[in-house]
Design goal:
heterodimer, A: mainly alpha, 8 strands, about 10% strand, B: mainly alpha, 11 helices, elongated
């Protein structure tokens, strides 16, 4: 994992080129090699520039750290996100620490960040590198050219976060080509998962399961993009062959994975329950969550797949069968964007300037009063909020209390119904007693008694409660001015909490 | 205000001697133009605005007066309707015109940045109105997202790069001739995002530039923010469609034709979806939001 020793100090600018090549073809090969060479320059540059850092950093092998960083980013990036900045720094630390174990951890971290920032080249506006090399043009003239490249680039992730990706240049030159097929990657990941579980290596299994989930997301993403394109323009998507094939494939995939992952789920659940080691138990539980999430995503994908057909037909109706517009519409992409992009900058600018000048609308000019200006200049700068904008105080509207009974009434009723286990009472007696304290209370008591006719035995059993209110109808008519029906016998049953707990463990 | 009154008094009798324009009419006409200068104001939300719009449509002398007030202020009237309101825009060299140097400071020194900002606006419009019909259809509402615009321009740049490679061209630009560099390279070279200390979008990145464009267009009453997904999602307003269709599109086309570039298309839309091949170029959230 070290760079070739011979190219110890390659300057980033290869000014005096090698001897002129005989023809353009040979020159092209030369240009290719010069470009490849240029990609290694930033790595060498790190070791050359480490002397400029404040402090004694010569013990660190910067090129080694840089290549390790590129490897880490490459291995950690998947299709949907890239590698996390802090994660890469954290994973680099052991190697840096091994290079200089006696140095403080803060310095190790500083080195890791310095290397990573230099690979991104944070200082430049493009966040990239440029090398200059010379070639012979077909007419024999010597042309110096700029070669712009990046090694690690930053891409937007979910929710505004920034992820790192290695560029094609870095992968080709510094890592070696990677080629991943989505389907086979998923199958491989799952086979690996099964093997890992069967051997009890759950830590690795979790990693594999997470990878499998990314593959799943990738499928949804592909479909989503096809559907979006359809919404914009039905004809942009091949609905005759490509998309139906893709949907059929994806449905097969969902069916297949669903079966597969349910099988895995069963296995992990077993592993979870059988495992003695609490750490393994926890990992298996996490794994169950991941696989469950995979299954959830499959279900989601499937529902999207089923929506795809109707969506296509609806969009076709909207777009293809709509009455054709007579206006001479400009095709903004075909007439403007596509022709402008290949133009030389000087000419392209004229077009974009014209669009900008007339496409931005108007701004009412601001006139400043000197008095305001003084105030503005004297206002201390705003503290930037690290926590984001302050949440506005929610405008809560008090909802009217529409409960039929108050808390006090409930407490009174519960007290009334808190009967000793050996003395059940008639409902009529309870109602009469309740009526004496509060004319509304009998309704609540009656309601609770009716509920007690079908006591929540299962819940009480599960929650291990000590007693349970019950009501039985022995055929006696209820004699009451307000209520009719059966005069229930209301009583309290004592439950064997300890016995139930023992039962529960046995059953599980 | 008195200026307008004097001016309309002098001008009004000439076209029609019958209906004398009163200072009150001139004030109303100027008020209507003033409403038009507040592009985010919805006609339906303001009774006075609605009333003046109705008067503009039913009272031709009043309409002429309002047009004249607008023209005198250096404004172009695009449309006057209940949906778009008094849609006015700045004429060239008007005090209301937006200048690139005020829009983004770096652009005066760096032609590359100036191009990126201009292209961002063009790309937002192209994404908002992907088909010629969409631009022509008054009822169409386009939807754009910041990451979606960046991804779509990158995709177009990527196609050009591939094409150049297939033709065996060396596309690396010559040193010391920045003006001759192919325009797409400038977008492709610029990073699409970058980490900043305060977790805000890196202003110089392409998503930062697109983000600035959509925020500016939102302030112009051309877009309305609908969500935070994909770096921010927006939908278009009637005014934006008018502005792109009647002003910006034509002006840019004219400039292009003057350069001798005559784009020929067969009238079918040319904006194709992103290819599925280059997954390494795919950024998260690059797609556009679902909309129904």
């Amino acid at each position: 994992m070290t760079s070739p020793a011979s190219t110890d100090s390659v300057p980033p600018q290869l000014s005096a080129g090698p001897r002129p090549a005989p023809g353009p073809a040979a020159d092209e090969g030369l240009a290719r090699r010069l470009r490849a060479l240029a990609c290694t320059a930033p790595i060498h540059d790190l070791d050359a520039r480490k002397a400029n850092l404040a402090g004694e950093y010569s013990v660190y092998g910067m090129a080694e750290i840089a290549l390790a960083a590129i490897d880490l980013v490459t291995l950690n990036m998947d299709f949907d996100t890239g590698a996390d900045h802090d994660q890469i720094v954290a994973r680099l630390l052991p190697r840096i620490a091994a290079q200089a174990p006696q140095r403080p951890v803060a310095e190790h971290e500083r080195v890791a960040r310095w290397v990573l920032e230099n690979l991104i080249n944070v200082g430049s506006v493009d966040r990239g590198f440029r090398a200059v090399y010379g070639t012979f043009a077909p007419d024999g003239s010597y042309v110096r050219r700029d070669y712009d490249f990046k090694l690690i680039e930053e891409v937007p992730g979910y929710g505004g976060s920034v992820y790192l990706r290695t560029t094609d240049e870095a992968v080709n030159v510094l890592v070696g080509a990677l080629d991943t097929d989505v389907t086979s990657a998923q199958i491989a990941a799952e086979v690996k998962l099964e093997v890992l579980i069967s051997r009890g290596r759950l830590a690795d299994a979790q990693l594999a399961a997470e990878q499998a989930r990314y593959r799943t997301v990738q499928y949804s993403e592909t479909l989503r993009r096809a559907l979006e394109a359809t919404r914009r323009n039905v004809r942009a998507v091949d609905w005759l062959n490509a998309v139906p094939d893709m949907i059929a494939e994806a449905l097969d995939h969902v069916a297949d994975r669903y079966r597969h992952e349910n099988a895995i789920l069963t296995n992990i659940r077993k592993a979870r329950d059988e495992s003695e080691d609490p750490e393994n138990k926890r990992r298996a539980a996490e794994l169950v969550d991941i696989v469950k999430d995979c299954i959830r995503r499959h279900t989601q994908l499937q529902s999207r797949l089923l929506e795809a057909g109707p969506l296509f037909r609806a969009e076709q109706d909207r777009q293809a069968f709509a009455t054709p517009m007579t206006a001479s519409g400009i095709d903004l992409y075909g007439h403007l964007v596509a022709p402008v992009l290949p133009l030389p900058l000087e000419q392209a600018l004229r077009v974009t300037d014209a669009f900008f000048a007339r496409g931005t609308g108007l701004r009412t000019p601001v006139s400043v009063r000197v008095g305001d200006l003084v105030d503005i200049l004297l206002t201390p700068p705003m503290e930037r909020e690290h926590l984001g904008a302050e949440m506005p105080e929610p405008d809560l509207i008090a909802t009217p209390d529409d409960s039929r009974f108050s808390e006090e009434q409930l407490a009174a009723a519960m007290e009334l119904l808190d009967l000793p286990a050996d003395a059940p009472r008639r409902l009529s007696g309870l109602l009469a007693q309740a009526r004496r304290s509060d004319p509304d209370l009998p309704y609540l008591v009656a309601l609770l008694a009716v509920h007690a006719a079908s006591p929540p035995v299962g819940t009480a059993y599960r929650q291990g409660e000590g007693k349970l209110l019950f009501a039985v109808d022995d055929g006696t008519e209820l004699e009451d001015p307000e209520f009719g029906g059966a005069d229930l016998i209301v009583g309290t049953a004592l439950l064997d909490a300890v016995g139930m707990a023992a039962d529960r463990t046995e059953a599980a | 205000m008195s200026e307008h009154v004097e001016w309309s008094d002098a001008e009004a009798p000439a076209p029609s001697a019958s209906a004398a324009v009163t200072p009150a009419d001139a004030a109303d006409a100027a008020r209507l133009v003033a409403f038009g200068l507040q592009p985010k104001l919805q006609p339906a939300r303001d009774q006075e605005y609605t009333e003046l719009l109705r008067r503009y449509r039913e009272d031709p002398p009043f309409a002429r007066l309002a047009d004249a007030v607008a023209a005198g202020l250096g404004l172009v009237v695009l449309e006057v309707s209940p949906r778009a309101g008094m849609a006015v825009t700045a004429a060239e060299d008007s005090v209301f015109a937006v200048r690139m140097g005020d829009y983004a400071r770096r652009t005066s020194a760096d032609s590359g940045d100036r191009f990126l900002h201009g292209l961002a606006h063009l790309a937002v419009a192209a994404m908002a109105f992907p088909r010629p019909e969409d631009l022509a259809d008054d009822g169409y509402i386009g939807r754009v997202s910041v990451n979606g615009v960046d991804a779509f321009v990158r995709q177009a740049c990527h196609r050009l790069e591939e094409r150049a490679e297939q033709q065996g061209e060396n596309t690396d630009p010559a040193t010391e001739a920045p003006g001759l560099e192919a325009a797409w390279r400038i977008w492709a070279r610029r990073s699409s995002t970058g980490a900043t200390k305060d977790a805000r979008r890196l202003a110089g990145s392409t998503t930062g530039i697109v983000g600035k464009a959509v925020a500016f267009l939102t302030d112009s009453g051309f877009l309305q923010r609908t969500g935070d997904d994909n770096g921010g999602t927006y939908r278009t307003t009637a005014r934006y469609q008018l502005q792109v269709r009647d002003m910006a599109g034509g002006a840019a086309m004219a400039e292009l034709l003057e350069l001798g570039v005559v784009p020929v298309t067969d009238g079918t839309p040319t904006l194709l979806p992103a290819e599925e091949t280059d997954d390494l170029d795919l950024v998260a959230d690059a797609g556009l939001p679902f909309h129904s």
